[in-house]
């Protein structure tokens, strides 16, 4: 080791001396070689390039170069690595450098105290962890950095304060592969690394460099930043695409498409099922790693054999003189090919006496390491044993690599600089057949015609007939090891790579191993050996970084599978499924994200309460309305418990163990209980937006009701599969088959019962399962136990057979497999029926109908089983995002944890701890402390806390996986915002938000409550997109708008309870509209003089009804001859839009109007945008007086349900308020649908309760606008004019 220190010190002095002697424009930087000392030739630099001479440091492996850091300069020898991206240096005080016996940091350290330009920019932010447990931690700092004669004044680097690695690295890979990016999981954390900073400081023109490693004996080469050297390769330089990993470029991943073996005895084409093979070109790896199947063929051709003792392939050292070679082909059939000779593939195992084969055809021969090893999973690596034979250009600006056969030991030089940023690689041609990269060759066994020639040309007997049995030291040490058996290879895991015990010798030095070494005792032979802390022959693997080049083993393969789309930014669902681990697939298969939705008072919350009880989430059942002083778990708001209604959707989670055929399967259910009132429809909208499935609850008496239809529409809007649960089977008049028929007829979705009831009304006992033909009854306290019997009550057997046949027939209508069986008159098995129900349900073609009584604790557990059997898991339903980089093209998200994160904030709540944001994780995983990007605001936010909600209770978690629902604190956002981890330009469509239908004027009674009032309004608007607030400019009143009387009433009450603010509420303002009924011409001249420049504009044209779309306004210009310049025409359009916002009759918005501009006039100095905008507004208001202005009032589709005896009373109520559209009279109750004026419906709920003894219920939703009656219009206009007059007199 002392010798190494002396040589390195000498090399540094030599470099300084040579740099001093260099003439202008020449950059020379050399390190004396350890084994073959010879003076390195001088290399010249052209403008725009920098060249660094790198040396294959024999004691450490890999390629090292001298650099200097700080002011004054401190010299260090750092390892070059194209696979990483940070420059980092060991601190002089690091323990590994100062401990006695550790070997020290003999390649140099950095002392910050001695540099006057040192500045810390990221305290504690630098941290790299490796799979073997070695780490380097410390600070990010900036300082002067010198390499190859180039000086960078403000280079960001890592300082290894706590490092287990005794030397630093110069990473020249993609900036997104920097350690800080992986640690923060945010691409915005990336800083300009060495190649980027060289461009920024004007030293080179493009983020690109070329690498020439020369041959193994020379052990030295160069890296040329910003240019290529055409004197260092032969033949054509061919460029090919680099492929992204998970949508981002982090490693130099290319497609290996062919491999051939050639020797004097013949040639063979080697094939494997992995072709095309994703390979990374990485100078940070000493060896090359290919798929096991392919590596075995290479070994057999070359005569290499696999050693279980060393866990690698070995070969006689004499084989380095073999005339055989391997030809690596890239980027398709006619892509570049690189020949790698045996002299580059036979490496010494030690720098002392080599091990010797004891028996077999290789007996007595020295054993060497073979340069091609096996790897069991992608990505595969082509390291220095390959790169020495290739001249490689890395073009990071264009994401391309150019490659050509190297010219070994070339003394020629012709440096060509990249002319500009993103310029194509000079002198390089494009690989012609890259589109054929994904074509797979036929896999055949080679004839091994080349194998004899490999051995014969080296004077070695071929090992194919028999293999040597052992090897040991020539000087007699007995190893006592197993025989070499190539067929008996140890399975190599991707993270473990190759076992580190690969250097056995008598001297304390190991050739070609890249990392630092520690002396350990060999457990087999009791001899000392050097062990590398890395598991991949010096391969550095950034295990802490999800953006690292090997974030997931098969991400590279998936990128190549999408090569035909080259720029694919996310993997397909099929590719993700192919790479999904069994554990991940099992987790996803057990997840259900479901909602409970129904008409008012159908029993949603009661059903949810039973689900929580039977799954063990709550220990006792409490009923709605809080009669026992507790109330249902999911109705956590005091108002909800008082009124017995659900106001806010509530989320929870539970685990349900499904028992079938003696096997217990555990399912994880995320559950959202939704409101039933139309006033709170936004809660249902956003729940449906993020759910994978739903349980639609229906009343056994009423069946499909008004809000059921609304819920059905919402489910269809978001493509949510559903099962149906007919509740209240114990009520008088219960008829589940009527409900099934109504689902088919009213909701227009095929449905069939999969159960029939045992008993009815008060005699309801349980259900008969029509699939397995068994009776299910609840027993024990609260129905906690199920009694399952194959004995169906005799009186139900015929009905059961009939309904089972109906189920099969209905399934045959919607499922192809079931249809074939039905036509062939084959009776399906229960498993086939269940599979058909699941397929049809997920495909939105069918809904199975179950039945029970939640309040009576009967038949809820079979419904839970149906949730698991028939509703989809997150991987079964397509969820799309919009790729903003491709014009919002739809891309499918995949619920896979290792993919880049995509999530949607669908609900906000104010909490004592701050804003609580509910997020559905569609892709990737979310970890506590990570950073996310809001795609709407482009702001980065940190996630300090993640919780899973159980109504109003929280359970902290450290990580949440793909497909799950969680809530986070500390995120400032709006409902419907999309979050990513910064790697994908994705956003997601938000939920549908209906327009407000009712308004109130509101103000706090006390002026001192203004702050609390303002805070409450801001919170309510953030939480509820249907709740809106604005200040009327004329009345200066604060106006709140919402979905109905109950909606606004609840918010006023919440103001009083939660914020202690009492408010005065004015007469609700209906959202009227104004329109015109006939054409009216105008010719308006605006001419004003105010002392300075005046206002002049003349507009001529007409206004008329917009026949194309009565809901929108239309502006059209027919001006000819340039009488009104184009810039003023746009002002006229804006003026028209402004005047339509506040109509002349009532001050409400004008709709259905068309303004046609035909002529006008301008003034040289007085015309302006403002003048023409104002003139258009004045002309419209004047013409509106003769255009038959009308007031439009909103008509509400009102659905009333009440007992049949109150039909007459309700008819009298509705005749005064609107037009009856439809009436349906049942045995017990009737339903009436009417179009009613919203103005006439204020206070209707009070009248309805009085008329029906509190038994009637109604719901309203906006239908359309219609002209108001003349007497009402006259009243409204008079009232508005009176208000204006009152303001003018103030």
What does this structure look like?
There is one protein chain. The chain is of the alpha+beta class. The chain folds into 7 domains: 2-221, Acid Proteases (Cathepsin D, subunit A, domain 1, Beta Barrel); 235-531, Cathepsin D, subunit A, domain 1 (Beta Barrel), CATH 2.40.70; 591-870, Rossmann fold; 879-987, Translation factors (Elongation Factor Tu (Ef-tu), domain 3); 998-1064, Elongation Factor G (Translational Gtpase), domain 3 (Alpha-Beta Plaits); 1077-1188, Ribosomal Protein S5, domain 2 (2-Layer Sandwich); 1192-1273, Alpha-Beta Plaits. Helix content is 22%, strand content 32%. It is built from 26 helices and 70 strands. Strands 50-49-55-46-47-54-51-52 form an 8-stranded antiparallel beta sheet. The chain has a 7-stranded mixed beta sheet with strand order 34-35-33-36-37-43-38, with helices on both faces. Helix 16 (794-814) crosses helix 17. The longest helix is centred in the middle third of the chain and has 21 residues, at 794-814. The N and C termini lie far apart (97 Å). Residues 1-22 form the signal peptide. It is found in: Mitochondrion. GTP binds at residues 598-605, 673-677, 727-730. Residues 63-404 form the Peptidase A1 domain. Pfam families: Asp (PF00026), EFG_C (PF00679), EFG_III (PF14492), EFG_IV (PF03764), GTP_EFTU (PF00009), GTP_EFTU_D2 (PF03144).
